[in-house]
Amino acid sequence: MQLIPVSFEELSDIKYTVALTPHAPYATPEFLVVTFTGVYRDGSAGNTDATFMVAIMEGVQRAWFTKSLIIDLSGLTYWWGDEMSWIYRVGHFQPSPCYKPLAIIVGDNCRDALQTLDPEQYNQHCVQSFEEALTLIRSEKPKFDKCMDEWRNR
């Protein structure tokens, strides 16, 4: 049987970078930043773009554990496609019922579409700048810590 090699990059033309806060060896970084740039394809053509983005975010969260996540979409063009809503669930800390603090930085080429896709999630997670993202994840951290403590003590 001849196997066919595949890679995540075949799913999408979207590019990404990952960055961590400075931290001591074996210490948990404060947060992780995943930046996506490029063009998210419209409608169902964007399904594999969403799959790619979620796969990258899940993978980097497993590789570099942090208690908070910032997704930077300021360089992404996104006009419409329902599966983009998957980004709001990437911080689920399984098997607990808790979600990591999540901030999503939006830009001019994705803001309107994300607002109409899920206004409640947009208002909860989306901001305009890195500084606002820091403020948001830091304000949500006590809620996450409490959720985790309650879950562990059950």
Strand content: 15-25%
Strand order, main sheet: write it out: 1-2-3-4-5
Number of helices: 4
Class derived from helix and strand content: alpha/beta
Distance between the termini: 49 Å
What ranges have pLDDT less than 50 throughout 5 or more consecutive residues?
A: none
Shape: globular
Report the helical percentage: 25-40%
Rg calculated over all Cα atoms: 16 Å
Mean pLDDT: 92
Secondary structure: number of strands: 5
Summarize the biggest pleated sheet: 5 strands, mixed
Secondary-structure element pattern, one letter each: EEHEEHHEH
What does this molecule look like?
The chain is an alpha/beta fold and 154 residues long. The chain is built from 4 helices and 5 strands; from the N terminus they run E-E-H-E-E-H-H-E-H. The protein has a 5-stranded mixed β-sheet with strand order 1-2-3-4-5. Helix 2 (111-117) crosses helix 3. The protein is globular. The chain starts with 14 loop residues before the first strand and ends with a helix. 32% of the residues are buried. The mean pLDDT is 92.
Keywords:
alpha/beta, 5-stranded mixed sheet, 5 strands
Briefly, what is this?
The protein is an alpha/beta fold and 154 residues long. The chain is built from four helices and five strands.
Blueprint of the fold:
Elements: E1 15-20, E2 32-39, H1 47-63, E3 69-77, E4 102-105, H2 111-117, H3 119-125, E5 126-127, H4 130-152
Parallel strand pairs: 2-3, 3-4, 4-5
Antiparallel strand pairs: 1-2
Helix pairs in contact: 2-3
